[in-house]
Design goal:
By secondary structure, this protein is of the alpha+beta class. The chain is 46% helix and 22% strand. It has 2 domains: 61 residues, no CATH class; 33 residues, no CATH class.
Amino acid sequence: MLSLGKALMSNPRLLLVDKPTIGLAPRVCKDIATVLRNLNQHAGLTIVITKQNVNFPMSLAEEIHLLETGRVRMTETADDLHNEQYIKETYFGI
């Protein structure tokens, strides 16, 4: 939260967030998700999240760009990406 606060002090229009929940308790992760969602929806801030666990960004994102080996493999809405067979097999083990 402190890092987010420091980043917001300059009134950015774009916020780059690298692994915002790494090593944090699930309750704190939910709080961070709430803050990021509010910043996007109420303050109009564009937020780019990098994360290896796709569940966190998929719960927040309007659009997801899936990067693999340095290239954009897919760009979809979270709902559409969640329904892709490749994503189900590769990232969710379904």
